[in-house]
NAD kinase isoform X3 (Cyprinus carpio), 392 residues
Amino acid sequence: MEDSVESKLTLKSDASSEPFSYCCSACDCSEEPLRGKVFRNRTKARSMSMPSAPSSAKFRRTQSLHGPSPVTTFGPKACMLKNPKAVMHIQDPASQRLTWNKPPKSVLIIKKIRDASLLQPFKELCIFLTQQKNMIVYVERKIIEDPAIAIESFVSLKKKICTFREDYDDISNCVDFIICLGGDGTLLYASSLFQESVPPVMAFHLGSLGFLTPFKFDTYQSQVTQVIEGNAAVILRSRLEVKVMKKNREKESVEEISLVTNGDKTMHYQVLNEVVVDRGPSSYLSNVDLFLDGHLITTVQGDGVIVSTPTGSTAYAVAAGASMIHPNVPAIMITPICPHSLSFRPIVVPAGVELKITLSHDARNMAWVSLDGRKRQEIAYGDSAVEVISGC
């Protein structure tokens, strides 16, 4: 497996102690998109070349005691503003700022779908960005096709917006930053759209949960202007790189199944919150083996196990009894779900280790894996494995 780095930038408001999310993407846009036009080019999935013999040493990556230390850029134009040497020789993750190589010209807006309360904020934001900031706005086609938006007041606005389709149109080269309108689930969906690096993400709290969405929409004009002008506060957030391997029963060989393209291509999947391996619809307890850097650590018997990032430690993991981890701590949290044991409690391992989860030989039923609550699929007896490494 080829060593790769995947990090997530998280912006934080100076007026709030909570972070705001920002993701990264190392690409350049070579074509000038047309306003109001739909992209027709079919997306070519970005696959990672894999060596023939897997090795845990391949997963080693440079770690920083001060938090995630990415080697990618953050979108076509975003980058980190280095601290002056006179102030601090080490880049402090608590004082990082965003800057731009070139002024940002395009923005992707992700809106919680089928939510009537977000129609007016969505309209105001689009008008502000297109008319006052003269920016190119990208929106998913399914949002524009929402019957609630098919009203006269949105007709003129639709002509100024570029649309795209998930898993079909590739806009990763053209988006400078992302704005989310919704809750934490909306931000997780935005992260899933960018399977390599992710452009900066600014998340406004307009949903039910708001661990990752500290910005209030009441002050959106000043907040967005600050991001466009640069020097906004950021927090880096790491993601997990996940691979599911299944045995091809027809060819009697092991092949990698893509969690992105329905099994027809080999890809890694980047996860912001957590990987969950559970018992699925079965009434029996799940029984899976957990390996750390090739060594069997324990057998998890219970409802399942959660492997989460520091960001995901505030999600399913904390509901299962784990502690919260600050996003600047380079670590992976392993949390059992209702374990049938008095000794197995949540544990923290260093970022950069290789975790492998397989179905135990004495398991009474299959297991199921899900990534950030999506891409759920079954793990069969003894012929499947889930490999997880930190992307920081």
Observations:
- The domain at 7-238 is CATH 3.40.50.10330 (Rossmann fold).
- Residues 292 and 355 are 5 Å apart (CA to CA).
- Residues 1-5, 15-68, 260-267 have pLDDT under 50 and may be disordered.
- The chain has two domains: 7-238, 240-390.
